[in-house]
User: Fold this.
Amino acid sequence: MNDRVEIIVSSTETGGRTVSAAGSGSPQEQPSLLLDDQLCFALYAASRAVTARYRPLLDELGLTYPQYLVMLVLWEQDSISVRELGHALQLESSTLSPLLKRLEGNGLLRRERRAEDERSVALRLTEAGAAMRERADTVPLAIGDAMGLTAEQDALAKQLLRLLTSNVSGE
Assistant:
């Protein structure tokens, strides 16, 4: 199935922008090589801008963006295996290992071998890691404000990005 959606960005009288979506017809016959026509560049620029907006907020917590993502998963589900964490974050264990080592060294989580399976490592928050959640409560609101999207636009953006990820990764 190949869902096609046209996103329409319009300027408002107050200088803001609105985004709407509608189904579109067949794809362009002649692909464009203009930078502004490249979805990959729009994703790249948005990713860099959002990550830069996170940086000062996460600096206050002593976390990098990837470490913050790990903490989000652990705040949602304490006691998770490294494999489950990797699946949730779409990261390989070789990428996760240095992140986990740093978070453990900072006293935010601990790694424990599971009694039922010595090959599996469980990740658990420490008291400091659990307490950090309260300090991090302001991060999503600050990022949401910076993005300036309505709830509908936010939901649409997530839906389109998840569809894109699924399509590109072949899932």
